[in-house]
Write a structure and sequence with these properties.
2 domains; 4 strands; four-stranded mixed beta sheet; mainly alpha; 15 helices; 4% strand
């Protein structure tokens, strides 16, 4: 086995970070969410339709969250890239993440004399670093709906505190998260139809990820001020640049605060699943 890899995890992470700050990269992330987070089928779902989810060909939600976390490290440019530029972003991202996947698998073995180590009675599995790759690329802990149901049970006894200190109940927050997911599913279909009437230079699935408080109020029937407080609780401050996210193992604030604020009432939500996770394990209780 060749233990010497041409690039380290740090080098790949840095290159990926630079790519994610490219003009219009938000549209690339929206594309990955559509390509790899959805199961596309015609009449009925078949095993082949779902095969991509476990084949290693799709980006995991953790990988997409990494892209989001790197993108917010600088000002976000929402200009739609030209088709060739967009394709270049997609190809380079796939290549970097694939290489990063391999490096994470082999990094623990880099430069090690494993014959000597094994002869001394040690096992590579005794070092926790070998589990970083399977943990990062592993499946999720629960389904979207399970997070919603479990969170309601988990925080039911805290409703009085939530209402007094946050301005919303756990049931209201649950409804907002659920409606956000429903709206995005509907918008994806609408945006795909709308793109058929546009020239390729204007193709983007990003509009399907836009979310307004007014839409949630209309669908949920919850008062505007309560919806606003729920959204604010999971919205990334506009001044936040995720400066602590310097490696895959470091804290990525976009997981805790997945709503990217565009203005006072409009947000960008790439992965509703991340919102459900944050709802289950909120960033703070203060």
């Amino acid at each position: 086995m060749n233990n010497e890899l041409p690039r380290t995890e740090h080098q790949l992470f840095s290159e990926l970070a630079s790519l994610c700050l490219s003009p219009g990269y938000a549209h690339t992330i929206a594309y990955f969410c559509f390509r790899d987070n959805l199961i596309q089928y015609s009449d009925e779902v078949t095993p082949d339709d779902m095969s991509c989810m476990s084949s290693g060909e799709c980006l995991s939600r953790a990988e997409i969250s990494t892209l989001i976390g790197l993108m917010i490290k600088g000002p976000i440019d929402y200009t739609i890239p030209s088709p060739p530029v967009m394709q270049d972003y997609i190809i380079r991202t796939d290549q970097l993440l694939a290489e990063l996947h391999k490096v994470m698998s082999f990094e623990p073995f880099r430069g090690q004399d494993w014959k000597r180590i094994v002869d001394e009675g040690h096992s590579p599995l005794q070092d926790g670093v070998v589990f970083r790759e399977p943990i990062f690329h592993g499946g999720e802990s629960a389904y979207f709906f399970q997070y919603l149901d479990l969170a309601e049970r988990k925080y039911k006894a805290d409703n009085a505190w939530l209402t007094a200190n946050k301005g919303f109940s756990i049931e209201a927050a649950q409804s907002v998260v659920r409606v956000a997911h429903e709206l995005q599913c509907e918008k994806l279909s609408t945006q795909l139809a709308a793109m058929q009437q546009l020239p390729p230079s204007e193709w983007s699935i990003l509009p399907a990820h836009l979310l307004t408080s007014a839409e949630i109020v209309k669908r949920s029937g919850i008062a505007q001020h309560i919806v606003t407080r729920v959204l604010d609780a999971f919205a990334l401050p506009t001044s936040e640049i995720n400066e602590n996210f310097t490696a895959l193992s470091e804290f990525n604030i976009s997981n805790a605060l997945p709503l990217l604020r565009l203005n006072q009432s409009e947000f960008l939500l790439f992965q509703p699943y991340s919102l459900a996770e944050a709802f289950m394990n909120p960033p703070s209780t203060g």
